[in-house]
UniProtKB/TrEMBL annotation:
<keyword id="KW-0902">Two-component regulatory system</keyword>
<dbReference type="Pfam" id="PF12833">
    <property type="entry name" value="HTH_18"/>
</dbReference>
<dbReference type="InterPro" id="IPR009057">
    <property type="entry name" value="Homeodomain-like_sf"/>
</dbReference>
<keyword id="KW-0238">DNA-binding</keyword>
<dbReference type="GO" id="GO:0003700">
    <property type="term" value="F:DNA-binding transcription factor activity"/>
</dbReference>
<dbReference type="GO" id="GO:0000160">
    <property type="term" value="P:phosphorelay signal transduction system"/>
</dbReference>
<dbReference type="InterPro" id="IPR051552">
    <property type="entry name" value="HptR"/>
</dbReference>
<feature type="modified residue" description="4-aspartylphosphate">
    <location>
        <position position="58"/>
    </location>
</feature>
<protein>
    <submittedName>
        <fullName>Response regulator</fullName>
    </submittedName>
</protein>
<dbReference type="Pfam" id="PF00072">
    <property type="entry name" value="Response_reg"/>
</dbReference>
<feature type="domain" description="HTH araC/xylS-type">
    <location>
        <begin position="435"/>
        <end position="533"/>
    </location>
</feature>
<feature type="domain" description="Response regulatory">
    <location>
        <begin position="7"/>
        <end position="123"/>
    </location>
</feature>
<keyword id="KW-0597">Phosphoprotein</keyword>
<dbReference type="GO" id="GO:0043565">
    <property type="term" value="F:sequence-specific DNA binding"/>
</dbReference>
<dbReference type="InterPro" id="IPR018060">
    <property type="entry name" value="HTH_AraC"/>
</dbReference>
<dbReference type="InterPro" id="IPR018062">
    <property type="entry name" value="HTH_AraC-typ_CS"/>
</dbReference>
<keyword id="KW-0805">Transcription regulation</keyword>
Length: 548
């Protein structure tokens, strides 16, 4: 994880002291001065605004003294480190402050750079340790509370006769019958009394073999974002790579948008800092949907319940959707018997010809369904039943298409899975799509390669093609690309006089640092070592030939 410069706040009522500290070389200590205050009251306001990592504070100050300030600071910022500035006469105060959790103290009369540098380093080490322990503890407790909340939501969804419309707070029936404990509500960001909070749904998608790395990066970034951003009051994971984030109410939607752009930037930076190929190969996707305001716990239930409608509404977004969506989702409609008959008529015109059936699916069925926006679950169930009958006429004993089609997350993937089913007559040897993909990857190793890029070349949806490729070959597209690139790099390092950075570019990994790290993990040795040993072996062989 990338360690950012620590933010430092100065609190002292004496201007000369603040001026001296202002001139301290903070950057040399990997720190940045984010503000200064003359008393504890001003300092608390700045802490709520900037969430400093370390506070350097005097003890004896007007309006609010240092001890009171430390007590108040600890309520909302338990891991913020405190370095005391004190005089000999303040020693008893300093002892009390240390008891309250101050990490160190410095005598004003002997204040010098080296002493402050040592105090900063000690505070930094304590900060990182405490954040790790506290972050893991908070995350563990919050995950358990979130699971209990999801259980209550599932109980509500199973109630008979529930309306299939975005629920309103006054008719969820949740808060009265299935409420959580007060401790759970506090963990999730909703104590007994709180200001209105803005609900934001963060959605993460990544290839199956990279999902764990992406989720770890997301959790780390959300913890850091909550710690550094006072407007982020809480967040917790939901299901299927979704996270509920709660922001303090913003006056203008544009303010919310700017906050979320910063959040997405932090998430991507965290994934990139882990030296994964997620960013380089565009395999990770992050988006957020901005929901309504929660003014009460009943509103929380309603907004979380409505999140499932956003998930469904995105099913028909065939064009690249914006990273940040504002406002309510587009409405969906029910799949009525008349609609089923019309769809049967459209698909039936293609007869048993798979190519004609796909042309009908893409040219007639897709735009007709997208215009009416049928509920995805009902549409997938109907299409699975129709496909099962069609396959029974051409290939008795086929597998159940419902399993295949139900996993489609959007229309493009549904279309790809449908194509795979209708074109799945037994063939000798590997499937044509797999052979074509392997050949194309081998010929384009120097270019940017990713699952979406290869799938588009083959003409299938990324999710479906990725699963199909792994089933057929036993390795993912990413694993194949990595193996072919590393094998080619090994050959070039051993058999040519190309420099390491030239080899990296030749195999499609122009980032020298990432190439070196990846090659070492794959080969067990650095590329420079492989190159050196390869040439030593070559020279030894030449010498033997010359002697003979």
């Amino acid at each position: 994880m990338t360690i950012k410069p620590i933010g430092v706040l100065i609190v002292d009522d004496e201007y000369p002291i603040r001026e001296e500290l202002r001139a301290f070389p903070w950057a040399a200590c990997d720190a940045v001065l984010i503000g200064e205050a003359e008393n504890g009251e001003e300092a608390l306001a700045l802490c709520e605004k900037h969430a400093p990592d370390i506070v350097v504070t005097d003890i004896t100050m007007p309006i609010m003294d240092g001890l009171t300030f430390i007590r108040e600071l600890r309520k909302n910022h338990p891991v913020t480190q405190i370095i005391l500035l004190t005089c000999h006469s303040d020693f008893e105060y300093a002892r009390k402050a240390i008891a309250l959790g101050a990490s160190d103290y410095i005598l004003k009369v002997s204040l010098d750079e080296e002493e402050l540098k040592r105090a900063l380093q000690k505070a930094r080490e304590t900060l990182l340790r405490d954040r790790g322990h506290l972050g893991r503890e908070i995350l563990s407790r919050r995950l358990k509370a979130a699971r209990r909340l999801e259980t209550r939501l599932k109980e509500h969804r199973a109630l008979p006769g529930r309306e299939r419309l975005p629920v309103q707070a006054d008719r969820t029936g949740l808060s009265a019958k299935s409420d959580l404990s007060g401790e759970d509500w506090t963990l999730l960001g909703f104590p007994d009394e709180h200001q209105p909070l803005r609900f934001v749904l963060l959605r993460l998608t990544a290839p199956e073999d990279e999902l764990r790395i992406a989720q770890d990066a997301t959790l780390e970034s959300l913890l850091a974002y909550e710690r550094r951003t006072p407007t982020c009051k809480a967040w917790f994971p939901m299901r299927d790579g979704e996270y509920a984030v709660w922001l303090s109410e913003a006056e203008e939607p544009e303010e919310v948008r700017l906050r979320l752009e910063r959040l997405l930037g932090a998430l991507l930076a965290e994934a990139e800092s882990r030296e994964t190929p997620l960013i380089e190969e565009q395999a990770i996707a992050l988006s957020v949907t901005v929901g309504g305001l929660a003014r009460s716990r009943a509103d929380v239930w309603a907004l979380l319940e409505a999140a499932s409608w956003w998930r469904e509404a995105d099913f028909y977004d065939d064009a690249p959707s914006p990273r940040i969506k504002m406002g309510p989702p587009k409405p969906l409609s029910e799949l009525e018997p008349a609609h089923r008959r019309h769809l049967s008529g459209l698909l039936g015109q293609a007869g048993m010809n798979a190519d004609r059936l796909m042309r009908t699916m893409q040219g007639d069925v897709a735009p007709w369904c997208a215009e009416r926006r049928f509920r995805p679950a009902a549409l997938k169930r109907w299409l699975a039943a129709w496909t099962s009958e069609w396959l029974a006429r051409s290939r008795p004993g086929h597998s159940d298409p419902a399993i295949e089609l139900s996993g489609a997350s959007d229309w493009g993937e549904l279309e790809s899975r449908f194509a795979g089913l209708v074109r799945s007559a037994p063939e000798a040897g590997p499937r044509r799509e797999i052979v074509e993909a392997r050949s194309w990857i081998q010929a384009h190793l120097q270019e940017p390669l990713s699952l979406p890029i290869v799938a588009q070349r083959i003409g299938l949806g990324p999710a479906y093609f990725g699963r199909l490729f792994k089933e057929e070959t036993g390795e993912s597209v990413h694993q194949l690309v990595l193996r072919l690139r590393m094998e080619k790099a090994l050959k070039l390092l051993r058999e040519t006089d190309m420099k390491v950075y030239e080899v990296a570019e030749a195999v499609g990994i122009p980032n020298y640092r990432y190439f070196t790290s990846t090659f070492r993990n794959w080969a067990g040795a650095a590329p420079t070592d492989v190159k050196r040993l390869g040439y030593q072996a070559e020279r030894s062989g030449d010498e033997r030939e010359n002697r003979t």
